[in-house]
Amino acid sequence: xxxxxxxxxxxxxxxxxxxxxxxxxxxxxxxxxxxxxxxxxxxxxxxxxxxxxxxxxxxxxxxxxxxxxxxxxxxxxxxxxxxxxxxxxxxxxxxx
Length: 96
Fold this sequence. Notes:
This protein is an all-alpha fold. The protein is built from three helices and no strands.
């Protein structure tokens, strides 16, 4: 029974990390500017890839807290872009 406990904790940590990753990607899709959307997506992907091999629980918790803080920043910025982003010119990637 003792061996099952770390596995459960790891599974819940993995689920929380995946939920954070999905939330970051979803928030990134809210930006109207192509460059910002791609930046948020790239930062999320690179951050999770860089920390994929973490095994110490305190390091994982620190990274999850940092990711949650970055998610809140991205959500605030998405709200600001929703209010004022429509006044910017479209990027070359958006012009068809």
